[in-house]
Design a protein that fits this description.
Layout lengths: L1 H14 L20 E2 L1 E3 L3 E2 L26 H5 L5 E2 L4 E2 L4 E11 L1 H12 L2 E3 L1 E3 L2 E2 L1 E7 L8 E7 L1 E2 L1 E3 L12 E3 L2 E9 L8 E10 L34 E2 L4 E13 L9 H4 L8 H45 L26 H13 L12 H11 L2 H14 L1
Parallel strand pairs: 15-18
Antiparallel strand pairs: 1-5, 2-4, 2-8, 3-7, 6-18, 7-12, 8-9, 10-11, 13-14, 14-17, 15-16
Length: 403
Amino acid sequence: MASHSARIALLLVHVAPARAFYLPGVSPIEYDDREKVEMKVNKLTSTKTQLPYEWYSLPFCKPDEVHHVAENLGEVMRGDRIVNSLYEIKMNVETTCEVLCKMAYTAAEMRQFSGKIAEDYRVNWIIDNLPAATRVVEPATPTTPPRIITIYERGFPLGFRGSAEIPGTTAGVNYVYNHHRLVLKYHMDASFEGSRIVGFEVEPFSVKHEEKGGAASGAAKPLLSTCTPQKPVTHNLPPQPVRAAGDIVWTYDVRWEYSDVKWASRWDVYLYATDEQIHWFSIVNSLMIVLFLSGMVAMIMTRTLHRDLRRYNDVESMEEMQEESGWKLVSHAPPPPPAIHVPCTAVARSSTCGARCRGARARGRSLPAPRMRRSTATSSARRRALGYSRCTSGRGRRSSRAR
């Protein structure tokens, strides 16, 4: 009994420090007020080139240590490259005009931004396993009742191209979105403690920030005159171009909004997300792969079928040859007479040969040796091979005694 109790105590000691395994996106996470909410950045994607790029392949504000994190198996299979970021977000804590960093870019780095903007690359961020979405508000059509239709798009554009229709921009010049307003929606209920994140929206802005005291301040996070808590960023401010070397200040806002959407239904808005362009390249690529694999399978099946048919035909031919050749052809035919005279031997136990041998021995005579046209050595070897030795030797001894 004592040993049994000791085993149970040892088992409890090993089980006590164990931790449960958490699969992201399966169970909800409750955040307390002012608790840190981690925001992760994902790859840059485009419907024009179909070539994704890592977030830090462009010279964004980068932490000292970059950690690659995969939320779930689906993200790994899609080829997502999820890493940490410098954004600081706390539950139910709103911030305005928070400076992320100030970066000095060369002309080559500006051309990298401009090239990605021209190829319609989109930014993908993740908070609490929810991808960032852009809300597009459109008025109702004439055939529908007067209401506002809210449409979500996965991710948001890296920048835009200036045109005559956009005030404050130059046609043909690309502008980058360097200010982002993060709108996080949360839900609270009496069945659990804390708050659950049920929505993640991003509203991008392009602003050419101006520092207080001029650009000569040199601070990593300077004070801005174009963005303050009393004067938030709007779309009426001059945008940030990416056509020449210069400095870019990256800023962001954090807004929290209560939502009646429950955690189990937070993905419903993504089901109605619009696709900005049909992925013709992916469709053609998938069709080519299907056709190639179908051709390979058909070729393998055809070769296998031909080999089996050839083997079957060969077996039938061999069976026909066996039926028409061999001992079966002579089974009912009488044996032909021997080509040469075969003397009787002790090995051949036929009645005729035995009688001739006994008769010859009784009379003291010897049987005549077979006439062979070959040499003596060859005849002797042939006679020995055919079993003539015993009969001949007995005859010789009987002859010598008779004499």
